[in-house]
Amino acid sequence: MSDPEEIARFTALYDAHHPRVHAYAVSRVGVQAAEEITSETFCVAWRRVRDLPDEPLPWLLGIARNLLRESYRARDRRDALARELRTAEARTPDPGVPARRPSLVTPERKAVR
């Protein structure tokens, strides 16, 4: 984006709405994660500055909401994978403990002797 009008429009958008978008994100995920959500929200706005609606705040909050939803889904996938790995690890025998070998002498073989 190199058009001075678009740059000015985005700057005005950012200055006017950053505090509200950030507060919305903080109320959902806390300060640290809110920084990332807010930054990504304005990255989307930067890329779509030509598509800005007349009233941009609801649009920005919708973007933030969608990004939050994506972050929740990613967290849920990570948590599910971690649970799956813990379960698989619990079933894996300890390499320091010798494995029990099945006996070659079965009850049937004993009977034949």
UniProtKB/TrEMBL annotation:
Query: Domain RNA polymerase sigma-70 region spans what residues?
Result: 13-78
Q: Which UniProt keywords apply?
A: DNA-binding, Sigma factor, Transcription, Transcription regulation
Instruction: Please provide an example of a Pfam family that matches this protein in its UniProt record.
Output: Sigma70_r2
Residues of the region (Disordered) are: 84-113
Q: Which residues form a coiled coil?
A: none
Superkingdom is: Bacteria
The family database entries (SUPFAM superfamilies) matched by this protein are listed as: Sigma2 domain of RNA polymerase sigma factors
What protein name applies here? RNA polymerase sigma-70 region 2 domain-containing protein
